[in-house]
Structures are given as C-alpha cells and as structure tokens.
Amino acid sequence: MELAFVIEKFALVIVIFMISLGVAAYSTLAERKIAAFLQGRVGPHRAGWGGMFQPLADGAKMFFKEEIIPTQSNQFLFIAGPSLALLTALIGSAVIPWGQSLTFGDTVVQLQVADINVGILYIFGVVSLGVYGIMIGGWASNNKFSLMGAIRAASQNISYEIAMGLSIIALLMVTQSLSLKEIAAQQSGFINWNVWAQPLGFLIFIICAFAECNRTPFDLPESENELVGGYHTEYSGMKLGGFLFAEYINMFISSAVMATLYFGGYNFPFMNDLGLPQNIITLIGVLFLFAKIFFFIFFFMWVRWTVPRFRYDQLMNLGWKVLIPLGIANIVLTGIWIIVKDTYFK
C-alpha cells in the first residue's frame, strides 16, 4: 500500500511538473499574441500554424545558446540563482487541490500532492523563498545593475508580502482553516465563493500577486529602461531561461492559488445536480479550475500591456501607505461582520 501511495504521488508530481512547464512555455506565446492583438499587430506566426511552435523554437535557441559566466562573478552562486528561482516556483504547486478524487475500483486517487493542514503557510513560505534566487543571481553577477535589481526585488517582496498576509488573515477568519483543500471544499456553489465575502481582500491579494511575480506595473527589479535587465543582465542561455520560466510558473501558481482561495477552485455551478459519475464531475472540475487559471493569466498579460510601470517611490508608497492600512481595515471590518452575523443572523 505504501509503495502504491508513493507511485501515485510520484506520477502526480510528474504530471503537474509537465503541465507547469507547458503552461509556462506557451504563456510566452500567449503574451506575445495578446500584446500583438492590443497593439494591432500579428505576433509570432512563422514557426508552425499561427506560431504554435514558437515556444519550442525559443527553447531550442536558449538551449543551444552559448553559456557565458562573467569572470569576476561568484560562479557557484551565479548558477545556483536561476536554479533556486525555478525550484521555488515549482514546489508551490504541491498543496494546490487540482480537483476532487478519482476512483478506479478500490483505488482512490487524490488530485493533490500534499494535503497539509497549514497549506497557506506553506505557500507563504515558498513565496518568501522565491526572492532568494533573484537576490543570489543579482549579487553573484558582480554587476551594479544586477545588484540594484536584486535589492529592489528584496524590498519589493518584503513590502508586499505583509499586505498579502493581512488579506489572507481576513480570509482565514471567514474560512476557519489553513488547508487549501478544505477552503476549496467550502466553496461548493457559486454564492459560496469567498470573493463575495472578501472582495477587498481579493483586490489586495491580486495586487500583491503582481508585485510578488515582478509583473508590470511592478517589474522594477528588471526594468529595461533603468537597469538594462536588472538581476538577469549577465545571464544567457538556459540560465536566463530559468529566470524567465520561473516568472511564468509563478504567474501560473499565483493564478491557481487565487482561483482556489477566492473563486471556488475546482467547484463550478450546479456540479452536485448533474447526476453524472463522480469521475466525470471531477474531470469537469479540473477543466473549470484551469479555465479560471487561464483567465487570471490573461489578466496578468492584459495589465502588462495597458498599465505603465510605477516609479519606485510610487511602488513603496502603494505597499506601505495604501495596501497595508487597507489590509488592517479589512481585518477589522471582517471581524465586525462575523460578530454581527453570529449575533443576529444565526
């Protein structure tokens, strides 16, 4: 039984790993296509039908590109930086419930790698570790622009993690659980989605997600017109690819977390009234979860090509003077709402 359990989890890890890499690869094509659409262009269209093979061409280019390591850099940390960034981006998917269970005879397969009762704390731990890859890569490059990008990334992540944590505290007051599986299970039914109970908390969370993923308008650590390329200025080949893949995987995992915490996760309207076999309902739920994820990925890309980059002082002011006070106010309002509901609407 233990061997079967290990094989099941190993297979699930491989599937999620391949899906994460595939989504990250084709997010690059989607980004360029969306940018082209918004700007009245065609976008990539030569590598395959409609540019479908463009991510494969880009990957091959990076794989065969010359690897350059600056002579004055710390070579071990220079290589470790993108590796750590990619690793921390991937391990965040371990606690996300991708769907309900699948049943094959006497075997029940849970579509979640690890159902730990502190799943949200695990996500926050992974998010806080993610900046170390950027910091190490920026410092090890021995380049002033890279170092400035690393410092910006560190201060930005610290600032916005606080506001994100405050938004989650209010959500925990409503759900009474740290387990992502239990939070998703509580949201069966459209009216039970947490976004209706925590609209301000969701707004704070998604803004902080933009900052944590270094996405425009919060891409100050790598702003090309100021820092050449920021923390990955000195990188080329697959080391640069590691940083780029980490950014798109972070966007994918952040979208999955938002869908799970606020938009019902794998739940969809009338799922309990269809009368279909459980396995079919589970697979439909997985498709609905990925539809929500792809919507958020599109939103990330849409914002990138419509909103200009903030100045650094604006970035810090938004984090410390706007989002943190709003997060505290949201906690107070949530507490009042819970007291009133328990007192008058039992």
TrEMBL record:
Gene Ontology MF term list: NADH dehydrogenase (quinone) (non-electrogenic) activity
Catalyses which reaction(s): a quinone + NADH + 5 H(+)(in) = a quinol + NAD(+) + 4 H(+)(out)
Bilayer disposition of the protein: Multi-pass membrane protein
Broadest EC class assigned to this enzyme: translocase
Keyword Translocase: yes
Pfam families, A to Z: NADHdh
Top-level taxon of origin: Bacteria
Family per record: Belongs to the complex I subunit 1 family.
Protein name stated in the entry: NADH-quinone oxidoreductase subunit H
Record organism: Paradesertivirga mongoliensis
Gene that specifies this protein: nuoH
